[in-house]
Amino acid sequence: MPIATKGAVKTLSSLDIERLGSPVVLSNTYHLMLRPGVEVIRNAGGLHRFMGWNGAILTDSGGYQVFSLADRRTVTEDGVLFASPIDGSKHILTPELSIEIQRALGSDIVMCFDEVVALPSDRETVASAVDRTTRWAVRCKETFEKTRSGSINPGALLFGIIQGGTDDELRRRSAEGLLKIGFDGYAIGGLSVGEPFEDALITLDALVPSLPTDKPRYFMGGAQPHQIVEYVKRGIDMFDCVLPTRNARHGHLYRFVHDDLSQSDFYEVVNVTNAKWKGSTEKIGTTGRTGRQDGQGHDPVVPYVLSSGRPDFNEELSRFSMGYLHHLFDTEEMLGYRLATVVNVSFYLELFRRLRG
Amino acid sequence: MPIATKGAVKTLSSLDIERLGSPVVLSNTYHLMLRPGVEVIRNAGGLHRFMGWNGAILTDSGGYQVFSLADRRTVTEDGVLFASPIDGSKHILTPELSIEIQRALGSDIVMCFDEVVALPSDRETVASAVDRTTRWAVRCKETFEKTRSGSINPGALLFGIIQGGTDDELRRRSAEGLLKIGFDGYAIGGLSVGEPFEDALITLDALVPSLPTDKPRYFMGGAQPHQIVEYVKRGIDMFDCVLPTRNARHGHLYRFVHDDLSQSDFYEVVNVTNAKWKGSTEKIGTTGRTGRQDGQGHDPVVPYVLSSGRPDFNEELSRFSMGYLHHLFDTEEMLGYRLATVVNVSFYLELFRRLRG
Asked: Cα distance from B312 to chain A (closest Cα, Å)?
């Protein structure tokens, strides 16, 4: 899922995302409640209409952002009181309010409001957050059911969020608690927060087999392409990831190197601001090198064609060269950030198409 | 003509410009020779291929920029020696070199290299610039003819530039000199540089009747919509204008108010960053108010539909609201600058369609 934190995937319009072929974007309750405010979006007829997006929207509950971004927060059993970093104004988020806001936004996939803790934390802190997240999940489910009728999107789904850090027993306890309540999908929160990649894999190895096979499993947070391959192997279905869009704005482009996704070197990240790209006539939509020499001792560039997405967007990828993109970054033209974003989001979407086979 | 100073119309891709339906863009010899350099564009196969643009390109000769932007310039009969404001490196532009560069860029409409003077200047200075511009125009024409064979765009046109400030006699002298040499079109330079609008009109009234009716007349430089109407009345066919793109980046949007272009209030400029647009559900592609009350005492919003351009771009205009655009500017999302640019370039293109009738 590309990330539309504030109602727009950075540099792209909703029409662009449709052209790229992404079925869903993620947006953030926390950011939208502060700007433009829930009432503005409610009056617009919901977030889909506000941002002109015909696909699906998953909304964060605000739990993660309240813990990582807000000023002066106070956590009680009721919820979280916090100050806006924009203007210092006081706000509150409770499980009930988070669900009501997500209903007002018209989200297709509503997330439970959870308590997030930083890692590493002592076991007691993590255990306390797990148990509170489960108690809050009960309140989220109740509010979700109560607000179904009258909602602009009564067919929405509700996902629970499994916490527990890298402690297998706490993860199991969290999962069992949520399974008893029953959700439409299960998210794994509190990973990809700075812990070693191996620890995340071990956690998933222990946790995922206990999840139902007929419900989506959503890994919350960013992951590099080779990490995504490993997570998918372990049964993850959904990701949100800020890396393709954020890296694009620094000129870092993802490109396939070869077709064997079981090798972690199947992709490369090139920096288009590097002087070596000045004057390059290589197309931005090509995938980089095969990594294997052909008969003449060359390492050929392998083109790829997007297998989905609206065909007019393939033109966006095939028309421009790396040399042009280098020039756009050199002269700080906004178009450069946009084309780089198109390249990276295309790469991630193509990766998922390949993983689905 | 939208302006692609450095090989990109600010915030838009060449594909966007095609979708908007503009047949031609303007680009700048001066900016491109400094970055990325002529050799990069020559190796890319010309500017059209470099920027992925299938329409026509008019290139400035560099005359205006050398006089207005370059550091430490020295003008001789041969040409202009100047230092790059980017890195201080020394460069020279002569009539011959300017034409050769424009040929290498593959420009469709090549402009003569002219001497520009600031207004107001004393009559002697203006007269001297007129005469030098005529002598340089001879050299430009010679070089243009000599470089036709072997050019990547042998069908290109060459335009002469009439100087002379607001002095009718000097303007006539300039025009006569250029007409004797013979060009494919005639540009009027050195207006729209801070002189009163009335003075520009008086100058055009005196000058334009002396120009041939079967060659295009190009007014160089920016103009507000009501000024363009007056210039077109006086026989001008072509404009370049930075206003729609520059104003867009400040949130200033052009909108039609009514259909009577003979009234100078046929348009308005609204500032989408203004708090009054917060939460507005009005579509960005609508044209504003009629300025006349209907039967119910309301002042209705009149929608307009782009009569040309690729239909998928009308979607870009009809899908997003002023409230969404306000939010994008408020949160400094790059998409805001791009959508505002789409609105303003659409407005100017629509204005020209209406003027052609």
From this structure: 9
Nearest-angstrom CA–CA distance, A55 and B319: 14
Asked if B172 and B224 sit in the same domain, the reply is yes
Chain A: residues touching B (Cβ < 8 Å): 6-8, 10-15, 35-36, 39-40, 43-45, 50-52, 278-279, 281, 312, 315-316, 319-321, 323-324, 326-328, 330-331, 333-335, 337-339
d(CA A88, CA A84): 5
Residue A60 annotated to the active site? yes
Residue with tokens 């919509």: B225
| B255 and B223 within one domain | no
- Strands (DSSP E) found in B177-251: 185-188, 217-219, 238-239
Is B233 in the same domain as B278? no
* Interface TM-score (ipTM) > 0.85: yes
Active site residue B240: yes
Contact (CB<8Å) A279/B319: no
Distance CA(B98)–CA(A29), nearest Å, equals 55
C-alpha separations of B151 from A180, A324, B94 in Å: 75, 22, 19
Burial class of residue B216 (count of CB atoms within 10 Å of its CB; 0-12, 13-18, 19+): middle
**CA–centroid distance for A276 within its chain:** 32
Closest by Cα among A74, A108, A84 to A35: A84
Q: Does residue A261 sit in the same domain as residue A237?
A: no
A316/B15 CB distance under 8 A? yes
A contacts of B279 (beta carbons < 8 Å): 36, 39-40, 43-44
pLDDT tens per residue, chain A (357 residues)?
989 999 999 999 998 888 888 889 999 999 999 999 999 999 999 999 999 999 999 999 999 888 888 778 899 999 999 999 889 999 999 999 999 999 999 999 999 999 988 878 899 999 999 999 999 999 999 999 999 999 999 999 999 999 999 999 999 999 999 999 999 999 999 888 778 899 999 999 999 999 999 999 999 987 899 999 999 999 999 999 899 999 999 999 998 887 789 999 989 999 999 999 999 998 887 654 444 566 666 555 444 444 444 455 566 677 899 999 999 999 999 999 999 998 899 889 888 888 887
pLDDT digits (tens, 9 = 90+) for B288-328: 444 556 666 655 544 444 444 445 556 667 789 999 999 99
Check B16, B114, B167, B240 and give the catalytic one: B240
**How long, in residues, is chain A?**
357
Q: Tokens representing A246?
A: 């954020």
| Residue A174, in any domain of the structure | yes
- Contact assignment for A324 to B13 by CB distance below 8 Å: no
Of the candidates A132, A46, A39, A15, the one whose C-alpha atom is nearest the C-alpha of residue A27 is A46
For tokens 């869009």, the residue is A245
Among B148, B169, B165, CA closest to B157: B148
Specify whether B223 is located in the same domain as B338: no
User: In B, what residues contact A, Cβ < 8 A?
Assistant: 6-8, 10-15, 35-36, 39-40, 43-45, 50-52, 278-279, 281, 312, 315-316, 319-321, 323-324, 326-328, 330-331, 333-335, 337-339
Tokens of B134: 């005529």
* Domain span including residue B349: 246-356
Contact A327 B40 (CB under 8 A): yes
Cα gap A256→B183, rounded to integer Å:
51
- Do A257 and A202 reside in the same domain of the chain? no
pLDDT, tens digit, 9 for 90 and up, residues B54-84: 999 999 999 988 888 777 889 999 999 999 8
Taking contacts as CB-CB distances below 8 angstroms, the residues of chain A near B328 are: 7-8
Which residues in chain B have Cβ-Cβ distances shorter than 8 Å to A36? 278-279, 323, 326-327, 330
Residue that terminates a domain, selected from B187, B222, B241: B241
